[in-house]
Amino acid sequence: MSCCGGKRxxxxxxxxxxxxxxxxARVLPQAQARASASAPVIFEYLGVTGLTTMGAVTSKLYxxxxxxxxxxxxxxxxxxxxxxxxxxxxx
Length: 91
Description:
2 domains; alpha+beta; rod-shaped; two-stranded antiparallel sheet; three-stranded antiparallel sheet; 3 helices
């Protein structure tokens, strides 16, 4: 078998010492925190029976027990829930 000649180690060193990569790695968790910290969106159920639906982005289950039930929905899931019949976006 042939050896990679240390190229793998050299590649690893260049990636970990590259400021653009390490700076981006520090910024990503902060950006994710801002995205998840956005204000929830309130939906009201207009149907007759209960409804359970799943958020398209977060996969969170949202339960509306009866007509008039309101639920806070993650803003990332709001566009998908807006397309669900008998759900009305309030905010």
